[in-house]
Amino acid sequence: MNPIIALLKEHNVSDEQIQSLFQTLTENPLMAMATLGQLGLPPEKLQALMMQVMQNPQLIKDAVEQLGLDFAKVEAAKDKLQQQQG
Question: What is the pTM of this model?
């Protein structure tokens, strides 16, 4: 199982919440970060997860694909976000 999804399940995040989080990620990455913060994960676990994702961004793609979502939407949302910041 993907380590991101495993960590969320370990902290009693429901399948519906996980699906919703990654659906939000495909549409609005900033909103997904806010949603992730509301799930009540211990700060040290959240920080460790973020480090893991920064070291291996493929984990997000793997999780999105495992959940049956379209990773191309994640890339499009990321590009849009970078354009807004640039």
Answer: 0.77
